[in-house]
Specification:
Distance between the termini of chain A: 30 Å
Strand order of the largest sheet of chain B: 3-2-1-4-5-6
CATH topology of the largest domain in chain B: PmbA/TldD fold
Helix content of chain B: 10-25%
CATH architecture of the largest domain in chain B: 2-Layer Sandwich
Structural class of chain A: alpha+beta
Radius of gyration of chain B: 24 Å
Shape of chain B: globular
Shape of chain A: globular
Oligomer: heterodimer
Distance between the termini of chain B: 42 Å
Protein name (chain B): TldD/PmbA family protein
Largest sheet of chain A: 10 strands, mixed
Family (chain A): Belongs to the peptidase U62 family.
Protein name (chain A): TldD/PmbA family protein
Number of strands of chain A: 28
Pfam family, one (chain B): PmbA_TldD_1st
Number of strands of chain B: 17
Largest interface: A-B, 81 and 92 residues
Family (chain B): Belongs to the peptidase U62 family.
Order of helices and strands of chain B: HEEEHHHEEEHEHHEEEHEHEEEEHEE
Strand content of chain B: 35-45%
């Protein structure tokens, strides 16, 4: 898992500098190159057909080919300085085949008839070599042929077309506002992604997709040399499946939250947030250290997403349940017998989780997944009961289901596609409830904003989460800021202690660019939505130490 | 093959430098051939090979620099990439922290290449996987493992006359063995430059034994316990401490090495006086490249000696601001150990817990270097010098700084992968006995 990258980007590491590494097989390029489409759909189809025909002639019973161009832009700054401006491009082709009932994969950065033939031959050779040790021949669920189709993230402003100067000015302006408010340090980054993916398979689908993602982020650090303390306040932005319009910071997307904070929905005001961050970082240092014990937790969506990701998203991945990730990401406590029983109470009856690959603005939204399956949404937890998993074409037969869920993904042309997490979201409550109303009913609790430290076991039972801002709730009212807070729970007990969820007015998405899985590790971008949610009687520990 | 010899790489780089019209130029030529095989459910799941070679050129005018990359090496392409870097440098904003390239450095001899690893074939990988899977399936155990091997070269040259070259090989092997009743799990990891030292069958047998031994674990109360950490467990936590020894962070007051009231803890005792940690690129067991990516020479150097912080890591810019020598990021770490074997250490333990490995370690508080994570794949209760029974996994909340102040005993060393999962670099870490290690909750995970 590229958690290290994620931690760096999210500014969670010890004084993380948020300097991303160049993705593997990517080359730095100038912006003109980024904006040049370099190859049209007709050319891609011709090349794709070479792979498919070569595979069939060499004995493949199935083949798919992905011609992928992966573009990234990073603009990184600290205080008054621009640290790095980097455009990267990775262009190549990946061919996946089934021969002798076994998968094989080959890839090349030579997107030419020769390069594609060679990659296909290599895929066939690997499939045949590994078939000697294959004990479970691949069974693919049927999938319709879609013919020639296309899909594009519905962006309003292509971030790559916005000038570097505009981005630098925006970040430096945010930095200066934080510094004016007394911040000791500030690091900020603009991170843009464009995946131009062409997929074709031997079943007659030719799918052209243009996918955009945007993530502005910062970390404001406050250092108190006298007491030897320092605190980092990360941005309240979300990584999104949107264009540069996310940076518009429209007034209607600003939410006045409990404790005097401002939260953001479909667009983000980085300058305003950086200003607030400096003030809050000061308060974080001065905050009262938490008394450990049982508390009712009120968890805000920009915090909630990571708890959902780790405790619901991962254990419902079928490949983990089956043991394919046993040596790396781990397995899952949500074993097949629990699902087959149809009465495994994962959570309280108010708890409903939906997996989704279509939600506008989400990181997971695409038209078709990376094995050409049309995307959809489906229930995972219904009225608290486990009802389904996340599975792809070569897995759903295990569930006696007839179609893939459409959540297959590869981070690049050079990596083989496999099951990856869809957006997994907690559905909002059905009765009208605002976060303020929720807090007013809590006697002894903590309101937690934004994700912080995170850790969960390899079967997803025991977890511990921190946060960024912690507000003590006393007798229904916010009673000041706390620090040194982390909560620990067992996943099933935790979701069964979920007693209330705010209504859809408070529903927001957050997520991560770099969820890691697989060996070699691959990153996946995924969002998780929720409204503010209440959990009763959760164990809170004090993380303050002296060294 | 993406591996160029020292002479081949030099010829290309000299050509690149000769095309420069900028104030200066630095070029890095890197290549790698990688292979892997992955298995799960006692069957191979994926495997592949990739090969990549690329040239990165950085040109500069004053404090403005630009970079460009190419993977074609004819004269016209080389000139094109230099021109492109120069154009980008002219357009770039000035970087106040830009440092001109280094002049020629003196490097030690490299010991990072192994011919046997260079010759790995797909058949070798398939057999290595089979040697791990077959003994597992005979014992009602399910194997999931991963083997990754690499051959790399790195070369750099600049307009100040520096030329550096290194080639290296590496192999990383990990396997998780799970009992088919779902109640036991064992794990083993091996990391070498020289694949002839790897025996996946022998390594897998250890993981199989742990899976069998760890079945039907009993729950004991969380709390503070004496622990014996196997080198993987100890290394994962301590390496997090050692990779946070950046001088700038410490000077800026945002590090565990920042001192209350100002200054850093350089020269201060922060852990038990028996702790000696150093880096040495020419170490026979854990060799590392004698230079890092910007050309700085790596030398044998103490990080912690007698419990005292001896060196912080200074990048070239920060070193220039502080009027000190730049200190490169270590390519390996060696923690001095003792003579006791694991068996000796268990025998000398009245009450304690043996930890095979930690999992999902994440920072909780960078100020105290507090981390949380869990035990995994073989956790055992020790009583009166013997392993009594397997215990359920624990979550811990502990700082490696606090842990190294609670040192009881150092045992024999073992080579472990520093980055985890083949993330680069290797360390030599002893078995460690630590008192008062803080476990904060129980996990049902196997």
């Amino acid at each position: 898992m590229k958690r290290r990258d994620f931690i760096q980007l999210a500014g969670l590491g010890a004084g993380a500098m948020m300097m991303p590494a160049i993705p593997s097989f990517s080359n730095p390029v100038e912006i003109e190159r980024i904006l040049d489409p370099i190859m049209d759909v007709t050319q891609k189809k011709q090349l794709a057909d070479i792979a498919l025909n070569t595979a069939k002639s060499l004995g493949a019973t199935y083949a798919d080919v992905r011609i992928g161009r992966y573009l990234n832009q990073f603009v990184t700054t600290r205080e008054k300085k621009v640290q790095n401006i980097l455009n990267t491009e990775s262009f190549g082709v990946g061919v996946r085949v089934i021969a002798n009932g076994t998968w094989g994969f080959g890839a090349s950065n030579q997107v030419t008839p020769e390069g594609i033939k060679k990659a296909t031959q290599s895929a066939i050779a690997i499939a045949k070599a590994n078939s000697k040790f294959q004990k479970e021949p691949v069974k693919l669920a049927p999938n319709p042929s879609y013919g020639e189709v296309s899909w594009k993230t519905p962006i309003k402003k292509n971030g790559f077309e916005v000038s570097i100067k505009d981005k630098v000015d925006l970040l430096l302006n945010a930095n200066s506002k934080a510094m004016e408010k007394g911040a000791s340090f500030v690091n900020s980054i603009m991170f843009l992604v464009n995946e131009q993916k062409y997929f074709a398979n031997t079943e007659g689908s030719y799918i052209d997709q243009d996918i955009h993602r945007t993530w502005p982020n910062f970390s404001v650090t406050m250092v108190d040399r006298q007491s030897g303390q320092f605190k980092n306040r990360s941005a309240f932005s979300a990584p999104v499946g949107m264009g540069y319009e996310y940076l518009d910071g429209r007034p209607e997307d600003k939410i006045q939250g409990p404790g005097g904070i401002i939260l953001y929905n479909n667009s983000y005001d980085i300058v305003e947030d950086a200003t607030m961050a400096a003030e809050q970082a000061k308060q974080m240092i001065a905050a009262k250290s938490v008394e450990p014990g049982k508390y009712d937790l009120v968890l805000e969506p920009s915090h909630m997403w990571l708890t959902i990701h780790e405790s619901v998203g991962h254990p419902t991945e079928l490949d983990r349940v089956l043991g394919y990730e046993a040596n790396y990401a781990g397995t899952s406590f949500l074993t097949l017998d629990k699902w087959e029983s149809k009465n495994f109470q994962f959570g309280n009856k108010v708890v409903n989780f939906v997996a989704d690959k279509t939600q506008p603005g989400s990181l997971g939204a695409v038209g078709y997944d990376d094995e050409g399956v049309k995307c959809k949404s489906w229930d995972l937890i219904k009225d608290g009961v486990l009802v389904n998993y996340q599975a792809i074409r070569d897995q759903v037969s295990i569930l006696k289901q007839k179609e893939s869920h459409g959540c297959c993904y590869s981070q690049s042309w050079s990596d083989v596609q496999f099951q990856r997490m869809a957006n997994v979201s907690l559905q909002p409550g059905k009765t009208q409830l605002t976060p303020e109303q929720m807090i007013s009913g809590v006697d002894k609790g903590i309101y937690i904003v934004k994700d912080g430290s995170f850790s969960i076991d390899q079967q997803r039972y025991n977890f511990q989460f921190g946060g960024v801002l912690f507000f003590e709730i006393k007798n229904g009212k916010i009673a000041g800021m706390l620090k040194d807070v982390a909560y620990q729970a067992n996943t099933q007990e935790f979701w069964n202690s979920c007693v209330a969820i705010c209504d859809e007015r408070d529903y927001r998405l957050n997520g991560a660019f770099n969820d890691g899985k697989g060996q070699p590790s691959q990153s996946n971008a995924v969002s998780h939505g929720s409204a503010t949610t209440r959990f009763n009687g959760i164990n809170v520990i004090n993380t303050g130490r002296t060294i | 093959m993406a591996i160029l010899s020292k002479e081949e790489a030099k010829r290309i780089l000299e050509k690149v430098i000769s095309f420069s019209k900028a104030d200066g130029i630095e070029a890095n030529l890197n290549g790698a051939d990688n292979g892997n095989i992955r298995y799960a459910r006692n069957s191979v799941s994926t495997s592949g090979e990739d090969s990549n070679i690329s040239l990165a050129v950085q040109s500069y005018f004053g404090k403005k620099s630009g970079s460009a990359t190419i993977n074609e090496f004819d004269d016209a392409s080389l000139e094109k990439v230099v021109r492109r870097a120069e154009e980008l440098a002219r357009l770039a904003p000035e970087n106040p922290e830009f440092m001109e390239p280094l002049p020629q450095q003196t490097y030690g001899e490299s010991k990072t290449w192994s011919e046997s690893t260079a010759k790995i074939t797909p058949d070798y990988r398939a057999q290595a996987a089979a040697d791990s899977i077959n003994p597992a399936s005979k014992k009602d155990i399910t194997a999931a493992g991963y083997l990754e091997d690499s051959r790399n070269f790195a070369a750099m040259m600049n307009s100040k006359g520096l030329y550096a070259y290194n080639q290296s090989t590496g192999v990383d092997f990990t396997v998780t063995m799970r009992s088919n009743d779902g109640t036991g799990s064992g794990w083993v990891a091996r990391n070498f430059n020289d694949v002839s030292k790897l025996n996946t069958s022998e390594a897998s047998a250890i993981a199989i034994d742990k899976a069998l031994m760890s079945r039907n674990a009993k729950a004991i109360e969380p709390g503070k316990y004496t622990v014996i950490l196997e080198p993987s467990a100890a290394g994962d936590l301590i390496n997090l401490m050692l990779s946070n020894m950046n001088a700038r962070q410490a000077d800026e007051g945002r590090s565990y090495l920042s001192k209350k009231g100002g200054g850093t803890k350089l020269g201060e005792k922060i852990v038990d006086e028996r702790i000696n940690i150093y880096t040495d690129p020419s170490h026979e067991e854990v060799p590392a490249s004698p230079w890092m990516g910007n050309g700085l020479a790596r030398k044998k150097m103490d990080l912690i000696k007698g419990g005292v912080v001896k060196n912080l890591i200074y990048d070239r810019y920060w070193a220039s601001q502080k009027n000190v020598e730049a200190v490169p990021f270590p390519g390996n770490r060696i923690i001095e150990g003792g003579t006791a074997s694991l068996e000796d250490m268990i025998k000398d333990t009245k009450k304690g817990i043996l930890v095979t490995r930690f999992w999902y370690i994440r920072p909780v508080d960078p100020q105290t270097l507090l981390y949380t994570g869990l035990t995994r794949d073989g956790t055992f209760y020790i009583e009166n010098g013997k392993i009594k029974h397997p215990i359920k996994n624990f979550r811990f909340n502990e700082s490696p700084v606090i842990m190294l102040n609670n040192l009881e005993q150092l045992g024999k060393q073992m080579r472990v992968s520093t980055g985890g999962f083949g993330g680069g670099g290797s360390s030599l870490i002893p078995y460690m006995k630590i008192r008062d290690f803080t476990f904060t909750s129980l996990s049902d995970a196997v």
